[in-house]
Amino acid sequence: MKIDLLIANARQLVFFENGQLRTIENGSVACANGLITWFGPAEAAPQEFEPVETLEAADCITLPGLIDSHTHTIFAGSREDEFELKLKGATYQEIAARGGGIKNTMRATRKATRDELTATGLERLRNAIAFGITTIEIKSGYGLSFDDEIKMLEVIRSLRSLVPIDIASTFLGAHTLPPEFSENRQDYIGLICEKMIPYIAENKLAEFCDAFCEAGVFSIDETRTVFETAKHYGLKLKLHADQLTNSGGAELCAEMGAVSADHLETISERGIDALAKSNVVAGLLPGCSFFLHVQYPPVLKMIEAGIPIALATDFNPGSCMTQNLQMIMSIACTQMRMSPAEVVRAVTVNAARALDRNDIGNIKTGMKADFALFRAPNYQFIPYNFAQNHISHVVKNGKIIFSA
Ligand code: NIG
Ligand code: FE
After folding, report:
1. Which domains, and CATH codes, for the chain?
2. Which of 41, 93, 208, 262 is deepest in the core (most CB within 10 A)?
3. For ligand 2, a single-atom ion, which residues have Cβ within 5 Å?
4. Does ligand 1 have an atom closer than 6 angstroms to the CB of 361?
């Protein structure tokens, strides 16, 4: 039987079955037509397999390809000047109030051409692949005008044909109020709802709509208005919720049937209750707490309440300037006390849920043949040996797309 790729004799195969992490020591996986056709103990592999290509994985462990379900990968400029201000004690909100923060990156991104944004985006996506990412979400949100938001989303679309991984795109026009509208907030909400969302939906430029629901940024009512319009136009919802202060973002996500509620550093008991009764995934971004030196989300309470937890980098120039999702897994273990099994689940199965995908995030017959192979003795080693890149090979749709 012809197969395209056989990953042979992996030291450990890591997958999820009935919600539990399982391992097969010395396992193999067969892929054909971009999908997983067989996996199991190496010695049980059917004799009649005729692989076009074999990846000998005896010194590697094989996990589902990692999914970075929340990033701001497209932006121009960088903000190391603000980093220094933060180290001297300025808060994220103080920097934003002085016209820095998101507005700083907005100015640079508006000036950048499509070609420039595409070139830096491409370099960053290659970097993401080298960290084991096979599916990534990218948001707009640094254009904040009709033309510049569309520019960002079109750059994201054009990157799809330049890299072998899947890119989910999210419209984040409600990231912050652009300076032109500082005296008339309602008009910006109007621009988002009457011009941007209809155009984006009609041209299929985004799958999700997101907003930064935060004191001094967008209120619950403004977010609800944007979300109602987005839903009406068929966009799915994700939210920057309860990050720096609690404004009931988690409850709004539950009420409106969002796919994920992200951040949640300041989620309340009511918010936890609301999420537990819903299908919303909690998309945690502990790299921000680490970088901004603020509180971490109460993840153990959320797990206790049965809320599915995804972890992502939130890669952006203001609150988390890293693309290393393996480092985020370490931070989640050491700073929030998640277990290695929970963090692996949070960047695979649950990250797929956070992007509303059911064909990725696990090693299972019929799923996309996306894998991250790590030079490690077991999966616990990845968060344990922190701040390293353990990747040996990355496979997407049954093809080897990266070798270290
Ligand atoms: O997820 N909180 C809002 N958005 C980003 C930060 C964006 C920026 O500072 O440029 C975040 O943390
Ligand atoms: Fe973010």
Report:
1. 2-64+362-403 (2.30.40.10), 66-353 (3.20.20.140)
2. 262
3. 314
4. no
